[in-house]
Amino acid sequence: MKSSSENNSFLTTSEKVAFDKSHREKIKFNMSRYDTAVKKGKGNYKNLDIAKDRAGFLKYKVISELDRFLIEFEDNFTANGGKIIWAQNSDEALKEIQSITKHHNIKSAVKSKSMTTEEIELNDALTKDGIDVLETDLGEFIVQQAGQKPYHIVTPAMHMSKKDVALLYNEKFNTPEHLTPEELTLYTRKLLREKFTAADLGITGANFLIADTGSIALTENEGNGMLSMSFPKVHIAIAGIEKIIPKLEDLDLYWPLLSSHGTGQSMTVYNSIISGPRKNGEVDGPENMYLILLDNGRANLLNEEKQRQALSCIRCGACLNACPVYKNIGGHTYNTTYSGPIGSVITPFLSGEKKFKHLSFASSLCGKCTTVCPVKIPLHELLLQNRNHSVKKGYYTFFEKQTITLSSKALRSRKMLDLLSGKTKNSLMKLTVSKTWGPRRDLPELAPKSFNQLWKEKEME
Asked: Do 370 and 420 belong together in one domain?
């Protein structure tokens, strides 16, 4: 694994965040609330394993036949009056969106929560074109005002306390410093309602793309997604090509799994199915609806026989909340759109394996991420596959290669292991691995004599 600035930055930030007591207290508190809610949500299932088996099998079937389902979806969506744009990468997606905004003379946009738009850095692109774009999900709105990226794929402001948010609003909007969460929410609601009614463009993601009806399914808790689609005259939805499910009836399986594992709810508050622009006689909805279907490296994952299973992910965030590494180093440390175990699996293929290969090594391989996944993605096994993949590609340093070569040779030879004294071995360990071991852990000392040597001495007694 070659050293890189990205890897060095990751290690430096990890060190800083992991020992930030304030950060740990906030995450511990927010995670504990999540754990309590999700335990209750999962309790609604008589047999959760059966639901997970079905969901995992169906998603993997779609991934394996993705071309067929995408064609079916495109035919039905365009028949509903929607316009589909295929984008191979973020540059193509942004270029097409820029063309749409120019065509419709867009000046302002409201945006529902969407990790895919974060992936292509849409907000920055719209702002550069002079378009006022506002996040309308409360968590996304908070981190946007703070000038930050989302911390978590489901709860973007998980790293902030209510005091942090109150102080941020005081700084940005001159509100009192000690507003309660309820008062902060009411203030945000009033501000956003005015933006919804005035916006030219509404932007959303899509939790699922339904092939047999040509519809997008959107799930949320605040109603901001519905408002983003209802008021503006133009609606742009952006989704990865892997979001397909075969039938409308399949939502009966996926919506409860997503809500129970994502927030602990039986169902999220608002669940919308959108099948195109406003029809004649309808009183609300956009006059024009565009859907950007984004590849952006997903085809690279499809080419991998084993790692492609990661495309089954429904973005519930359960693996992040279970991961001991994520809990310690936090979401921003990954410096990627998708963090935690699922991000560590897919990011090297979406954003460059050489640049982000280190994420696959940032795991304890405890397997809890696999256990909690609602579609049964074997995440810890895929992380091992990624590690193997990066080594085969030659992404390692000369020092790492020599260390593995020499240590493997020594560990396979009893004679070599017994050749040096325990004192000499400890000196070699300090010389070679003490820096990697880290300054906060004591390097273990090897015994003066090996078990083999002790056994032989015992036999001679």
From this structure: no
